[in-house]
């Protein structure tokens, strides 16, 4: 028994498991600082201070939200709106999957500034965009092409070869990070040379990821875990069992925690304490009879708030 214990301690893939009775569970409706009624199917989010933009999963549009309003401020129609957008350079950047086009919207009034034909790696839209080092980043082809878009010229600046079947991208620690569910890895790209500098093994079928809170974090849809990468060593230093297997879900690092959304109604929204790599809270979505509801959605952090959507409940919740 002592030998097994020492072996676990020495493993770089140390798995943190918890007894659920020890994790506080909270009703999201009671915990929320604000609940915004989108009245459709809100999914992917992008945040900008006191405002956010959310893609409607079924109606080919995106809504602008504000912490000051109970309903959307405005709506912009985008054919086949998909993927997790980003806000940068005074604009909202988002994808149209059927058009394989990157849209640039004015973040104030929502008018379309530019359309850039880029291609799209996942036609179903289970992707994410990123911004960093003066560029917009997205995966444009399932064969393994990461593109860098120059916001000054609204054109593709470079194309970088990565592993096939890569779909999601994040920026942090002066690098671009992308997940690959085919070989259970994360690739790190140097933005100065546009080259892959490291390939890191993580959990099974990583999809969405986030950089921040002293790590790069992946949501692994194949085994329901979260992997934590140390950006200083390019090694996975923890694997956390959040019981979130299957498609969907999302992850973000912000406000001192790592936040995970899943399709598991018993653990819809969870916060991880990066100080000990343990889940410290579970937020549930329940009706008036305390019945747990069907869940999925997305999550993003701004400087003061956590924004979370459930596409089945027509709302966006704001935590602080």
Would you give the CATH topology?
Methylamine Dehydrogenase, Chain H
**Which sheet architecture does the biggest sheet show?**
5 strands, mixed
Overall radius of gyration? 19 Å
C-alpha geometry: globular
- The CATH architecture can be named as 7 Propeller
Overall structural domain count: 1
Major sheet strand order: 1-23-22-21-20
What is the typical, i.e. mean, pLDDT?
94
Task: Give the distance, in angstroms, between the N- and C-terminal Cα atoms.
Answer: 44 Å
Beta-strand portion reads: over 45%
The total strand number stands at 30
Give the number of helices. 2
Please bin the fraction of helical residues: under 10%
> By CATH's scheme, which homologous superfamily applies?
YVTN repeat-like/Quinoprotein amine dehydrogenase
- Estimated structural class: mainly beta
Written account of the structure:
With 320 residues, the protein is mainly β. The protein has a single domain, classed as Methylamine Dehydrogenase, Chain H (7 Propeller), CATH 2.130.10. It is built from two helices and 30 strands. The chain has helices at 2-10, 28-31, and strands at residues 15-16, 25-27, 34-37, 42-48, 51-56, 61-66, 74-77, 81-88, 91-96, 101-106, 112-117, 130-132, 135-141, 145-150, 155-161, 166-172, 175-180, 185-190, 195-201, 206-211, 216-220, 225-230, 235-241, 250-254, 257-261, 269-273, 278-284, 299-301, 306-310, 315-319. The protein has a five-stranded mixed sheet with strand order 1-23-22-21-20, with no helix packed on it. It has a five-stranded mixed sheet with strand order 2-27-26-25-24. A hairpin with a 4-residue loop joins strand 9 and strand 10 (101-106). The longest helix has 9 residues, at 2-10. The chain is globular, with a radius of gyration of 19 Å.
């Amino acid at each position: 028994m002592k030998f097994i214990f020492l072996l676990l301690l020495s493993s770089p893939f140390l798995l943190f498991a918890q007894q659920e009775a020890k994790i506080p569970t909270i009703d999201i409706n009671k915990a929320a600082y604000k609940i915004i009624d989108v009245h459709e199917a809100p999914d992917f989010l992008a945040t900008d201070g006191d405002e956010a933009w959310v893609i409607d999963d079924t109606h080919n549009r995106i809504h602008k939200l504000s912490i000051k309003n109970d309903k959307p401020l405005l709506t912009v129609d985008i054919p086949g709106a998909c993927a997790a957008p980003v806000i940068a350079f005074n604009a909202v950047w988002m994808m149209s999957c059927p058009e394989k086009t990157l849209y640039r919207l004015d973040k104030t009034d929502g008018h379309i500034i530019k359309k850039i034909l880029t291609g799209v790696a996942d036609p179903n839209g289970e992707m994410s965009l990123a911004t960093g080092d003066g560029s917009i980043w997205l995966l444009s082809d399932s064969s393994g092409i990461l593109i860098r878009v120059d916001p000054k010229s609204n054109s593709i600046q470079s194309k970088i070869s990565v592993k096939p079947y890569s779909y999601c991208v994040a920026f942090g620690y002066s690098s671009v990070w992308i997940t690959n569910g085919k070989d259970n890895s994360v690739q790190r790209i140097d933005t100065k040379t546009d080259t892959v500098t490291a390939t890191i093994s993580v959990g099974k079928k990583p999809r969405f990821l986030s950089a921040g809170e002293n790590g790069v974090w992946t949501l692994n849809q194949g085994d329901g875990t979260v992997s934590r990468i140390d950006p200083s060593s390019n090694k996975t230093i923890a694997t956390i069992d959040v019981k979130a297997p299957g498609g969907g879900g999302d992850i973000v690092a912000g406000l001192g925690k790592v936040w995970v959304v899943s399709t598991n109604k018993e653990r819809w929204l969870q916060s991880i304490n990066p100080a000990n790599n343990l889940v410290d809270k579970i937020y549930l979505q329940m009706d008036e009879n305390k019945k747990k509801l069907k869940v999925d959605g997305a999550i993003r952090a701004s400087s003061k708030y956590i924004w979370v959507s459930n596409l089945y409940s027509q709302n966006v919740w704001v935590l602080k």
